[in-house]
């Protein structure tokens, strides 16, 4: 197909006519709402440039394996929506375009926040191989009505208070305290609880050993297991992904949900704004919480036959105007300086996230070690499978932590050697 396209392009140029690149963009964090806004943004670029884009939407639960299979089989897209934890894998394989030279010449390159540039370069190569489109910071949604009915007077501020409140709600018939994410995408929750109870955001010690099996971390993992086994989380939440936990919250099934701003979209459409609020993540014994901060963005595979056109598409999606629309519709913190002054983000709905951002001594954003080449496999397969075993009582929290520590320590050693 591409050979024919190039021949047509060459013929058009020889005859003085215009030609159009035919690009493929793969999105992996999919939902009808996200796909709709992506199609709108891409359509505007198509009309402006005359090029065409085929958008391929992969179901999130199988996206990691599906994209890897596509790439291995040579069915490589031009542009891909790249979650942070997949970046290192494709970077290490030398499959991504260095966007640094493009950004240096881009009219909007100078307004990208420092965090955007830093996180887009978090690989062993330390090249800008991704333009993040926004940041996901965890905070805790809570159902005011359910807490009142359960006799919980105030939103919990500590982990101990949170567990007590979740168990109090679960005593009501048909209700659960916590929307556990035991299926796809659940790794962040385990890491936050472990970090809070261990009072540390460090994933590795100075001598390169994983901290996930330290006593405090194991206590945090055990806390989540206990919530599930005690009935404070729904029985079927062992398989829940994003859509299920969000639905569990807005349906009134459970009272607490730790999520990023993207969950606010579906919740705000279905709940009375007076019936729920967002608070910071509960703090651990050390008086601190470590809400995970993650991101996804746009990367270009270097197998593309149209690198300049692919960059033009990424630049369009990443412009201040497009990024503002995208951030508001999908629920992320924007990537350009000054975006936080937008009235859209200066509301009570974002209060929990901004309280975390404005109190850096208490709420320390936890960046997952996505720079590890094997972290994508760990986050999307290994950790989910073993966590489900622990929830079912097939292995202990300590055994799970030891498996995770062995894998992460080995991956960190590889990273250190590469650097």
TrEMBL record:
InterPro entries xref list: Bact_solute-bd_prot1, SBP
- Give the UniProt keywords, A-Z: Signal
Against Pfam families, the record matches this protein to: SBP_bac_1 (PF01547)
Where, subcellularly, is it found? Answer: Periplasm
Quote the cellular component terms of the Gene Ontology held in the record.
periplasmic space
Leader sequence residues: 1-20
Asked if the Swiss-Prot or TrEMBL record annotates the protein with the keyword Signal, the reply is yes
The family classification in the record reads: Belongs to the bacterial solute-binding protein 1 family.
> Record's PANTHER family?
ARABINOSE-BINDING PROTEIN-RELATED, DIACETYLCHITOBIOSE BINDING PROTEIN DASA
Q: Provide the protein name.
A: Sugar ABC transporter substrate-binding protein
For this protein's source organism, the top of the classification is: Bacteria, Pseudomonadati, Pseudomonadota, Alphaproteobacteria, Rhodobacterales
């Amino acid at each position: 197909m591409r050979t024919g396209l190039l021949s047509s392009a060459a013929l058009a140029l020889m005859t003085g006519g215009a030609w159009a690149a035919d690009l493929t963009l793969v999105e992996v964090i999919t939902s009808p709402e996200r796909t709709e806004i992506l199609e709108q943004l891409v359509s505007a670029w198509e009309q402006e440039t005359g090029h065409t884009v085929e958008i391929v939407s992969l179901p999130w639960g199988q996206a990691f394996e599906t994209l890897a299979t596509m790439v291995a089989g040579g069915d490589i897209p031009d542009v891909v929506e790249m979650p942070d934890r997949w970046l290192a894998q494709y970077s290490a394989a030398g499959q991504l375009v260095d966007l640094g030279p493009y950004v240096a010449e881009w009219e909007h390159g100078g307004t990208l926040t420092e965090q955007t540039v830093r996180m887009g370069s978090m690989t062993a190569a330390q090249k800008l191989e991704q333009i993040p489109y926004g940041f996901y910071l965890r905070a805790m949604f809570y159902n005011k009505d359910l807490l009142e009915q359960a006799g919980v007077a105030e939103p919990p501020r500590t982990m101990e208070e949170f567990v007590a409140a979740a168990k109090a709600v679960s005593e009501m018939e048909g209700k659960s305290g916590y929307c556990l994410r035991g299926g796809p995408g659940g790794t962040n929750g385990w890491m936050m609880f472990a970090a809070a109870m261990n009072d540390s955001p460090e994933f590795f010690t100075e001598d390169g050993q994983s901290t996930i099996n330290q006593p405090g971390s194991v206590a945090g993992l055990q806390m989540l297991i206990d919530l599930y086994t005690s009935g404070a989380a729904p029985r079927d939440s062992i398989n829940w992904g994003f859509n299920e936990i969000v639905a569990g919250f807005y349906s009134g099934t459970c009272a607490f949900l730790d999520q990023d701003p993207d969950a606010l979209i579906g919740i705000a459409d279905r709940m009375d704004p007076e019936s729920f609020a967002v608070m910071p993540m509960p703090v651990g014994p050390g008086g601190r919480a470590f809400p995970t901060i993650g991101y996804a963005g746009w990367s270009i595979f270097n197998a593309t036959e149209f690198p300049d056109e692919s960059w033009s598409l990424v630049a369009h999606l990443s412009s201040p105007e497009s990024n503002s629309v995208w951030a508001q519709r999908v629920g992320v913190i924007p990537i350009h300086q000054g975006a936080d002054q937008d009235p859209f983000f200066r509301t009570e709905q974002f209060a929990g996230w901004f309280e975390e951002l404005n109190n850096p001594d208490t709420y320390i954003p936890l960046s997952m070690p996505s720079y590890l080449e094997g972290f994508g496999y760990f986050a999307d397969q290994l950790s989910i499978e073993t966590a489900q075993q622990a929830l079912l009582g097939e292995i202990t929290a300590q055994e799970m932590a030891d498996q995770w520590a062995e894998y992460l320590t080995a991956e960190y050693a590889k990273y250190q050697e590469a650097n």
